[in-house]
Amino acid sequence: MTAPLQAARAARVKTALDGDTLVLSTASGFDALSRPFELCTVLVSERADLRADALLGTRLSLLLDTAEGVRELNGIVASFSIVEPGADVGRRALFRYEAIVRPTLWLLTRGRHCRFFHARSVLEIVESVLADYHVDYRNACTARYPKLDHCAQYNESDFDFVSRLLERDGIYYYFEHESGRDRLVLADTPSAPMRGCAIPFAEVRIDAWPLAESVYRWRFEQQLTTGTAELTAFDFDNAKASAQQQALVARASADTGERHYVAAEYETHYVTQDDGRRLAQARIDALQTASACATGASTARALAPGRRFTLTGHPRADQNDDYLVVEAHYRIQAGDYVPGARAATREEPVFHCTFKALPSRYPFRPARTTPRPHAGAQSAWVLAPDGDEMATQRHGCVKVQFHWEQLDPPSAGERLHRCWVRVAQGWAGRNWGMVFMPRAGQEVIVDFIDGDPDRPVLVGSLYNSANPPPYALPAHESMSAIRSASLAGDGERNELRFDDKNLQLLLYTGGRADSYVKRNSLSWVGEDAHAIVEGKQFVKVGAQDFTIEDGQRVKVGASASLSAGVDIVQAAGVNYCVRGEIVHIEGGASVVIEASAMLTLKCGGSFITITPAGVQVSGPIVALNSGGAAGSAPGGSVQAPSSPKKADDGSGAR
Questions:
Q1: Mean pLDDT computed over 597-606
Q2: Residues in domain Gp5/Type VI secretion system Vgr C-terminal trimerisation (predicted)?
Q3: Terminal alpha carbon distance of the chain
Q4: Inter-axis angle of helices 122-132 and 158-169, to 10 degrees?
Q5: Total-model pTM
Q6: How confident is the model at residue 314 (pLDDT cuts 50, 70, 90)?
Q7: 479 to each of 434, 470, 505, 507, how far by Cα in Å?
Q8: From CA 213, how far away is CA 298, in angstroms rounded?
Q9: Does one domain contain both 142 and 182?
Q10: For residue 2, pLDDT beyond 60
Q11: In 168-191, which positions are buried (b, 16+ CB within 10 angstroms) versus exposed (e)?
Q12: For residue 582, pLDDT beyond 70
């Protein structure tokens, strides 16, 4: 029994199976710039026992003879179907199968991740993802792309993530096929695609096929399109310049089209004018892609997206130009065969293609068709270096770790290799406002500006089982508080507590409290005021007035010292009493004791009484000028008070 041979056929396949186990019958496919190609091949075989697992994921090559040599269409078998047994031809049943062939890039649609990239350019990010799937690629880009501080892939396939980044920066791709492999080519200039051959225009009747390779159907369309792209952005790290409106505005206009038709967009992914102009140019190039395009049909086997050709022989001379193929639909007829026969004879051409092309002078940019994922608010952990409670940046930013990072955790040395996240405060102005910086281990709420996963902002914090509230709930549900924790880890705190059940306000600090009032300080207490100072109290005032409406009781545990620079005047409305074991009254110049009714000096049973009526002296013995000595008492000295320390005026934190 002679097996079918493909060697003499103009279209044939090579698979992971031996030789001519599978023979190409027909194929149809779609290929376009910045889109993975798809090739549907109908295959026949004498074997009825072929299994999908022998071919899925393996390489399949479709070989097509052309005037320039052999054209390859290479990819991997993404789907394999048992279709039906073929007709009994020549007493031999041929079994029919169908294989869907896609590029290696298509494997990225099978993976889905939540992750981010830090300090990498768009090309470095794309190359990293491609490397995970062993995608063969070539970088033909010429522009310089900045490193992105934060670029997130969030709940999207690896393919959508890569497509979204390339579309945003105006980078397109196509495929090269050689040596049984498909190579992805990344490009951002019109000169990157390969130059092809000249293809003649040969219009034919609708019921006939052209005898030679040619373009036999041609339509050239021009449209009115947007002529100017304007982008604007905001850079919080250069807020003053951004607030001047024009600082980050970028514009680009097309050479053709109506320039007053403007596409104005808020673009969040650039912070320099150069990057803005590059993105604006990519945007207008993408919008201008529809301004002029050709569609046609051809039997030329070399037509492929990413290749250029020159049209010749068209009746209109202005159509004979250089074109870039951007999209193609293929239909390949390998021909029926009788087992043992070497080739088939058919009237229909082996290769038929409908295509879309742009004049080569028009730069191609991919349309922004891949949607950006929308990220809602989510919680995360605050990070700091090991052993540190906090890690902040000059704009009040912190670093956070999202819970979905557990699916692809960073290595220990790269845990902090991530962007700084801005922290929303209750009030923020120029050197004024509120500042509460999150600490390591806190669970926080992270939202995303405009839902963009590349623009996180920390908007709040949450209690959890590891970080419970400061008071047991619901027992103390009436209490509200601001409580901080000592960085020393000793359990101390600063706290401002509001008890709305008992209408109590508590101000507590485990360390030092400073009150600095630059002008007046007024205090009013409706009932009692209590103060306990366990150590010393130091008070210094310019002048002091006390008014005590009721009584006053002062107790000094040791010595009391009172000093006045000029006068000390004390007055009592009724009684005035000075008591001590020894009372010593000393006047540097004179001592005057005056009473309007009576003055008495008394010691034991002796006394001297002076009244307006006279002087009375009484004692067991009264001696005048009879010798003896005056009594004495220990002298006292006034001690100067210690000066108080000045309160912190807050200038050290400016």
A1: 89
A2: 480-576
A3: 94
A4: 160
A5: 0.82
A6: very high
A7: 22, 10, 10, 13
A8: 7
A9: yes
A10: no
A11: bbbbbbbbbbeeeebbbbbbbebe
A12: yes
- C-alpha span between 283 and 288 (Å, rounded): 9
Give the tens place of pLDDT for each residue, 20-60: 899 999 999 999 999 999 999 999 998 888 999 999 999 99
CATH assignment at residue 406: 2.40.50.230
Structural domain range at position 501: 479-509
Residue carrying the six token digits 């110049």: 589
Confidence of residue 466 (pLDDT cuts 50, 70, 90): very high
Both 183 and 257 in a single domain? no
CA distance linking residue 282 with residue 289, whole number of Å: 11
CB 326 within 8 A of CB 33: yes
pLDDT, tens only, 521-580: 899 988 888 888 888 888 888 898 888 888 888 888 888 888 888 988 888 888 888 888
Tens digit of pLDDT for each residue in 258-273? 777 888 888 877 777 7
pLDDT class of 346 with cuts at 50, 70, 90: very low
In a domain, 504, yes or no: yes
Kindly state whether residue 350 falls inside one of the protein's structural domains.
no
**Are 121 and 61 within one domain?**
no
| Domain shared by 69 and 115, yes or no | no
What is the C-alpha to C-alpha distance for residues 167 and 369, in angstroms, rounded to an integer?
8
Cα–Cα distance between 69 and 66 in angstroms, integer? Answer: 5
Cα distance between residue 468 and residue 466, in whole Å: 6
Q: Which residue has the higher pLDDT, 266 or 598?
A: 598
Residue closest to 366 by CA, chosen among 166, 595, 581, 220: 166
Q: How many CA atoms lie within 13 A of 102 on its CB side?
A: 15
Rounded to an integer, what distance in angstroms lies between the CA atom of residue 50 and that of residue 69?
A: 32
In angstroms, the CA 23 to CA 13 distance is: 7
Side-chain half-sphere exposure of 165, counting CA atoms within 13 A? 30
CATH of the domain at 264: 4.10.220.110
- Kindly write down the DSSP assignment for every residue of 597-638, as one continuous string: S-EEEEETTEEEEEETTEEEEE-S---SSS-----------P
What is the CATH classification number for the domain harbouring 117?
3.55.50.10
Question: In which residue are the tokens 């209690």 written?
Answer: 463
**3 state SS of 457:** strand
Measured between alpha carbons, how far is 436 from 446 in angstroms, rounded to an integer?
15
Exposure string over 477-500, b if 16+ CB within 10 A, otherwise e: eebebeeebeeeeeeeebeebeee
- The helix (H) or strand (E) run that includes residue 104 is none
CB within 8 A of 91, min separation 6: which ones?
Answer: none
Task: Please check whether residue 99 lies inside any domain of the structure.
Answer: yes
461 strand-pairing partners: 444
| 383: helix, strand or coil | strand
Q: Is the dihedral of CA 437, 438, 444, 447 positive or negative?
A: positive
Q: How many domains does the chain have?
A: 5
The reply to whether 112 and 82 lie within a common domain is no
> Does residue 393 fall inside a structural domain?
yes
